[in-house]
Amino acid sequence: MNYAERYRYRRVVWFIPVLLVLFFLLWQETREPAPVLSDVQGRVMEVNTAESQGLRGSSVHMTTARVRVEDGYEARVLVMGQNLRVGDEVTLTESRREDGSRHYSLARGGLN
Known about the structure:
This protein is α+β, with helices and mostly antiparallel strands. It folds into 2 domains: about 1-30; about 35-110, CATH 2.40.50. It is about 25% helix and about 45% strand.
């Protein structure tokens, strides 16, 4: 086998497994049905703010809130760009999967 044949052979040998892995990943992604999204109301039970130093030395703030949803479930959500207080009514986006798991996020302009 000369140099050109080995070069082509190696290209094909590495190209086929990469294609198979990509095909498998795309197939796995499309197998799971999309979550069902809905808006739910909740009341802020607790607000926590943490501060840390960023990579460039700047101060970084992260705020989370514990929210009780209408059905009594309590979720912790990340708060960005809003000032929440305990007792505030907020709108959350609920993402419900087929297996029954739920994920909540604070809707934009979610403060009622």
